[in-house]
Amino acid sequence: MSALPLVLLHGWGLTPSVWRGLREALPSRAVTLAPALPGHGNALPAPSADLAAWSDALLPALPDRAALCGWSLGGLIALDLARRHPERVARLILIGSTPRFVARSDDGPWPHGLDAATVAAFNANFATDPAGTQKKFVALQSLGDARRRAVAGELAAALADTGPERAPSLSSGLEVLANTDLRAFIPEIRQPAQLIHGASDALMPLAAAEWLAQQLPDARLAIFDDCGHAPFLSRPDECAALIAGSLDD
C-alpha cells in the first residue's frame, strides 16, 4: 500500500467510531485518520450551513496530501475539497455518495435522490425530536441490506450527541445536505476516484453513483449486491480490499 495517508470522512449525525470495522479490516501498514465532521463529536461547528464552510473547517486537520474516503455527507465534503483544494487531495474513495442529495427539477432534472418534501419534513422533525430523527435516519440507511439488523446496530452505536449544544450544528449539516448541488463541478475533479455503492441503497439511489462514475474524468464504480447505504459496515473486508487496491494503483 502507498504511504499516502487515508482520511475517512463519516456521514451526517454520526461520529468517527463508525469506521472502526473498516479500519480493522485495512492492512496494518495503512495510515488512517478519521476526523469528526464539524459539530460532531468534539469538533467545533462550521461557521455556516454551507458546504465550503464545512470543508474548510476540516482542512487544517488534514495531511498536506492525502487520499480522501468520504461516505454520504463525507462524500460531498471530499468532492468539494478535491475540487477547491486539489493540491491536498491525491485520490478519492466515495461510498454511498452523490453530487446532490435531494431530487428536484426546478433547476434541471435530477431524479437520483430523496424527494424534496421528504427531506424538508425530515429537517423539520429534527428541530422537535433530534434523537428520534437520528434513529429514523439510521433505519433508512440500513434498509435493503442483507445484514440490516447488524448494520443498524453499528450505526446506532456511532450516533453523535444531539444535546442542546450539538443539535444546531447537526441541523446545519442537514441544511448542507438539502442545499448542496455539485453537479456542474464534477467534470473539474481530476483525481482518480473509486466509487463504492450498495445496490439496494434506499437513501441514495445507485443511479447517483452511476452518474458520478460517468461524469468524473477518472472513476470506477464497484457495486455491492445485498447492501444498503453503508456497505463498509456490511462487508468491511471487501471494501477494505477495494480501498487498499485503489491506493496501490
From TrEMBL:
Which Pfam families does this chain map to?
Abhydrolase_1
- Ranges annotated as spanning the membrane: none
What is this protein's name? Alpha/beta fold hydrolase
Q: Name one GO molecular function term.
A: hydrolase activity
Q: Keywords in UniProt for this one?
A: Hydrolase
Which ranges carry the AB hydrolase-1 domain?
Answer: 5-236
InterPro entries according to UniProt = AB_hydrolase_1 (IPR000073), AB_hydrolase_fold (IPR029058), AB_hydrolase_sf (IPR050266)
Q: So which domain of life are we looking at? A: Bacteria
